[in-house]
Design brief:
With 540 residues, this protein is of the alpha+beta class. The protein contains 13 helices and 26 strands. It is globular, with a radius of gyration of 24 Å.
Length: 540
């Protein structure tokens, strides 16, 4: 049997697999991706990209611009409501005006709001990954997998037959059923299957019901069915999701019935409807109890299948791929040891559960009361879920007294280790950038002037000693703190420093330091030891 060798094999060509492949290829790590379907998704499915996912994806040149262009071609606003139909005169509004209600987000992140259907997002990620050199193989399935101490042997099959791929690591992004998760006997928890939904993609003229250049996402509750309708997805079509009742199957959703359901959902009994597609989609709350099985790492729905209520399942999957890509790059390039990969499970699994439970809670609120028995309560502050998540692992040097929380209010950033590095406007050689723009290519050591030069000197020594890709930048010198908010948002004093990882999370922060006039040669050694501790932890 023909054999190929590659550092990373990705199984699955959805959000998690494509984001991992794109960012691995961008970091010049050879990668093969296999996907049993002939192409990326043709259904709109998930809608939009969360700000944290976009912050990590924007490192790849052109991704943010292309995603933003899709949203610009679709609309300028989004409303979310609960109603009986689109013609309901008294809908219960969840989001009245996205632009107005979330305008404050510009203070927290440099990325714009992006609304785009999954089909378009996957298309862009596929193109970027291939342009960067990733080997993406569609109509190709994984047949079997065996792993040993040195690597993984996988048999894959395409139209030309079977071949053997020998990889150092495998990313299992093979969906909510995840054959790999089952084959490796990875236990799961959660509420399990919550039913099925028929996703009816249809073409119809909804003028008069849908405002121009506005996407509407309405949760529908009426005497006939419960479900959701998404309009204005920019694909020339709309999507109605109808929850199946007990005893119903795919055979019950004929084209004629789908037309009737669309007319009921829109409140227009004479609407001219053309049904384009009507597959069944499972709704589940299933959580893998570990994200790592030897050399195999689970991502996306294979790690955390969650209800769609809340729209963060896709973004969480994108983040999984991004988080795996930089960790694997670090290990494969020799900047960290293999044990560093354990931090993926330690950091991402609590977040996966948080997001899945949050969307389960939303399902209970946005569907009939009988469905919410035993469900958690919705989070009071959804913004914390979007930008206020925290990590805890051996790659984070927690400060004494840290409360171990996994959420904080991003509107009042702390800069403490484990938190997302705050957005701050900086001037670099006459160009205004965000601090977020500095992260992605490696570790970044930021120090405040005056007194920060000692950390720059220490960082150079540590960089050479540990062989880690580290960029050292002095705020107040080559970087100008335009709004004077760096020290406040990052929680450092004059002369203090902070170490940020490639994923934009704070790994370590210096203790309060004396002023520059009291720093001598011995202080460089002391600072070097402290910085080395931070880098050793962050880099495994």
């Amino acid at each position: 049997m023909e054999q190929e060798r590659v550092p990373v094999l990705v199984v699955g060509g959805g959000y998690a697999g494509l984001s991992a492949a794109a960012l691995l290829a961008w970091r010049e790590v050879p990668v093969i991706l296999v996907e049993r379907h002939a192409s990326t998704s043709v259904q709109p499915k998930a809608f939009g990209v969360g700000p944290q996912a976009l912050e990590m994806l924007r490192s790849v040149p052109g991704v943010e611009e292309e995603l933003t262009a899709i949203w610009a071609g679709i609309g300028e606003n989004m409303r979310i409501a609960i109603a009986g139909s689109l013609a309901d005169p008294q809908p219960r509004m969840i989001v009245h005006d996205e632009q107005e209600e979330f305008a404050f987000m510009a203070e927290l992140t440099p990325v714009p709001a992006v609304g785009a259907p999954q089909a378009e997002i996957e298309r862009i990620l596929r193109t970027k990954a291939e342009d960067l050199g990733a080997d993406l193989r569609f109509s190709t399935e994984l047949v079997s997998l065996e792993q040993d101490a040195a690597g993984v042997s996988a048999v894959i099959r395409d139209k030309d037959g079977e071949r053997l791929v020998r990889a150092e690591y495998v990313i299992a992004a093979d969906g909510y059923r995840s054959p790999l998760r089952a084959a490796l006997d990875v236990p799961t928890s959660g509420k399990g299957s919550l039913g099925e939904l028929c996703s009816i993609m249809f073409d119809a003229d909804l003028s008069g019901l849908v405002r121009e250049r506005e996407v509407t996402l309405w949760y529908l509750q009426n005497d006939v069915f419960t479900g959701v309708i998404v309009t204005g997805t920019g694909t020339g079509s709309h999507v109605l999701g109808v929850n199946l009742k007990e005893g119903e199957s795919e055979a019950d959703f004929t084209e004629e019935r789908c037309v009737e359901l669309v007319r009921l959902a829109t409140g227009r009994p004479e609407l001219d409807v053309r049904v384009l597609d009507r597959p069944l989609v499972g709704i589940s709350h299933v959580l893998a109890d570990t994200y790592r099985a030897g050399r195999v790492f689970f991502a996306g729905d294979a790690a955390h299948t969650m209800p769609p209520t809340g729209g963060q399942g896709g973004s969480t999957a994108l983040e999984d791929g991004c988080e795996l890509a930089w960790r694997l790059w670090l290990v494969l390039s020799g900047q960290a040891g293999p044990a560093f990969l354990d931090t993926y499970d330690a950091e991402r699994r609590p977040i996966g559960r948080l997001m899945a439970d949050s969307q389960l809670a939303n399902l209970g609120v946005r569907m009939p009361p009988a469905a919410r028995v035993g469900y958690p309560e919705p989070l009071e502050d959804p913004i914390g879920v979007l930008l206020g998540r925290r990590y805890h692992s051996s790659a984070i040097i927690d400060e004494p007294g840290d409360d171990g929380s996994i959420l904080e209010d991003p509107r009042v950033p702390t800069g403490r280790p484990g938190s997302r590095a705050p957005h701050v406007v900086l001037d670099w050689d006459g160009q205004l950038i965000s601090a977020i723009d500095l992260f992605g290519t490696g570790f970044v050591l930021l120090a405040a002037k005056p007194g920060g030069q000692v950390w720059m000197d220490a960082g150079r020594l540590v960089k050479d000693r540990l062989g880690i890709r580290l960029t050292r930048l002095l705020v107040g010198d080559e970087l100008v703190d335009v709004e004077g908010r760096f020290m406040e948002r990052y929680g450092v004093r004059e002369g203090g420093a902070v170490l940020v990882r490639p994923d934009g999370y704070v790994a370590w922060r210096s203790p309060p330091t004396p002023t520059r006039t009291r720093w001598g040669r011995s202080n460089v050694s002391s600072a070097g030891s402290s910085a080395a501790d931070g880098l050793r932890g962050a880099g495994g």
